[in-house]
Amino acid sequence: MSGSNGAGPLIAVEDLVVHYPVARGLVGSVARRPQQVVRAVEGVSFTVARGELVALVGESGCGKTTTAQAVLRLVEPVSGRIEFDGDDITGLQSRALRPLRRRMQLIYQDPYESLDPRLSVQAAVEEPLQIHGLGGSRKERRERVRDALARVELSPPELFLERYPHELSGGQRQRVAIAASIVLGPDLLVADEPVSMLDVSVRAGVLNLLDGLRKEGLGILMITHDLSTAARFADRIAVMYLGRIVEQGPAQAVVRDPQHPYTKALLSVVPRRDPRERSRREILSGEAPDAVRIPSGCRFHPRCPIAIAECREIDPRLERAGADPRHEAACIRV
Asked: Does the pTM of the predicted model rise above 0.85?
């Protein structure tokens, strides 16, 4: 694989489709009912550049985590194309993917489960180096572990090396998990709801840490349901609904001038510091439809407050919306 050596986006996803089969059960098998599929991701396209933080935002079940897993090749796409550093990795098998794993690292949502309780901080952060055969001698590996802990602001590292997960706070555990990800020197971090399991008091510190890593040149894909977090830390935002990106663009353009009614509804419930900026809360009717039985036309129309008859028939695509030419929305009412 050639690699682009920094030219072009670090990650480029085009028309990504991921489906999961639904278990039919004994009755379904005996009755020979047709196999149903969960249409988790359908036609998603986006890029992440070096030194850029892109946030995938949406409700639980919208497909954002599945999208991230597909980018890392942890789940197999039905179709589409995934490029990493200029090379197509969509069809690579596990052996060919192995050298790339250290360059693409995942930060899990739950720091309480991502760390092995039997391993000290030293062992947990050193383990990826051993798995990938990196770091040289034990002394050199220990030095890399210390450097990684210092980068995630667990200083001095000597205070933490021999501790175990149960001796750490939630924020410290997540920092250790991030240290274990960056010790390999990756180019891309995928952060799946990195602060949702943490106390509010420590969330900002972890997010500021990720922002610092972005400024060092890492590309970061952050999965979050919290649009306010995305607005503060992301360079670009992509809003997902039922397997599709319905709006995307520069973070400030999406937040200050939302075009899609779903984005507007999400923003209407975000707390505002200035009472004069408070907007009327938009309550969406019903629940998100089942990803097995997606509505015809625009998949948001059953909950949309401005839907018209055509919305039941036309499946809108992303088109330019708003003043910024990089701002797109998938809505015929825009």
From this structure: yes
